[in-house]
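Internal ticket #5521
Category: modeling
Description: The requester needs a full-assembly model to guide mutagenesis choices. All entity lines are attached below as received. Residue total reported by intake: 477.
Assigned to: D.W.
Attached entities:
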Amino acid sequence: MASGSCTNGDPVRVDFRFRRELAEKIEGNLASFCYQCGACVGDCPATTYGATFNPRELMLKVLYGLSDELMVTDSILWQCANCYNCHERCPQEVKPVEVIISMKNMLADRGIYPDAVRKVIETFEQTGRTTPLSPAVDRQRAKYGLSPLPPVPMEEIQKLIEPASIEGDEA
Amino acid sequence: MTRVAFFPGCLIPARHPPMEFAIRYCMRNLGVELVDLEGASCCPDPIYFKSKDKLSWLAVAARNLTLAEDLGLDVVTNCSGCTATLSESYHLLQDEQLRAKVNERLARIGREYRGTSRVRHIVAFVRDEVGYETIRESLVTPLDGLKIAIHYGCHLLKPSKIMQVDDPNNPSVLEKLVSALGAVPVRHRNWYLCCGKACQIGDIPTNMMHGLLGTVNDEQADILCMICPTCFGQFDHGQLKVMKQFDEEAYTPPIYYFQLLAFAQGVPYEELGIERHRLKPECLRRFTSVAAEERKVSTDGAYQEP
């Protein structure tokens, strides 16, 4: 068992503020349907090949709202392989991987994500692509008879990814 | 000619142009017209940008889908990551509330998502709209007897209700595509494993790759074939890294399916872009292309039909 306040015998205080915040995210509320059967664990490659990752335990921590263990730098959430096996196996359609991604959205709201992740996000926000354009890329493409890659209309992308509060929509 | 909107994504056009060349070459040979989507952006990726803000991720994905809706065409993707994002968006946006929310965002740029363009991974599209027999008929150099290990990767198959490509517990599409080349498909014991690329911390990706590559090497296949550019990276330079870390010698050179098909359709080995691979499938050299002599690359680099 992983260490954590859900296993130390003390009464658990469910952090509803954390759970309300998570429920605001797309498919963040699905953990509420988890009955802790563990079907997600057997097929999880991060469980098989890692020492601590366990999607069933993560869903339990979500149910308790143990944000202190989840909303941290180098959170265990980043060990998820995004393989979607748990999504496939869950009899309750909890989609643990989606709940995990929703929590990553909460980490992003707090400005804490790994450098490798931050780098790709910034490249996308600046260029509209995750693999940036360069003259070298276009030279490679020309070698195979492919036309240069056109720039992405960034003014459109930037308008789309602005938070709702700026224009007051999505109330 | 069947026409579809082509969504090549970021990784293949920018990092693996030979893969894009092979797809365009093969699809033309198979009688499919790929229509480029003007103004397309990153799908956006289902690992990084989705981790920042799912709603923005969905809005950008929906914008990409509206580009195909404008043309009245279905979307064909060649990257499992793009397929994951666009298929999941198509699925999520069937929810009226969510669609309304996303359309409020799209209204900022004068667009509206309608849900009229389906999303299909290129292997599902080839299976359903082209057929294995057409592939067989297109071959110049059948790869008779070549032993090919198969890697499905995650996002081609799962979540199966959303991807709707194949049975995630016992898929067959890649085996059949490889058989259509005349080759012998081999399913290794850890065939269902993830390539590990998306894990961001710890030793998990290396351990995972080591477990997977072990069972691939057990099969002593000539080549490891996959249809995801991210998996390809893991199996090319990633495989070298794993071999070094675990001090092992055995390896299986990886190749993207459409480069293999292009080779079987007559593109010479030297023109497949293999020189950029860290682990080269030299075994292909034993098949000499009868069409190789007839084909020439013109000075502007565009391929001429024989």
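Resolution: model delivered.
Comment from assignee: Residues 54-71 of chain B form the longest helix (18 residues).
Ticket closed.
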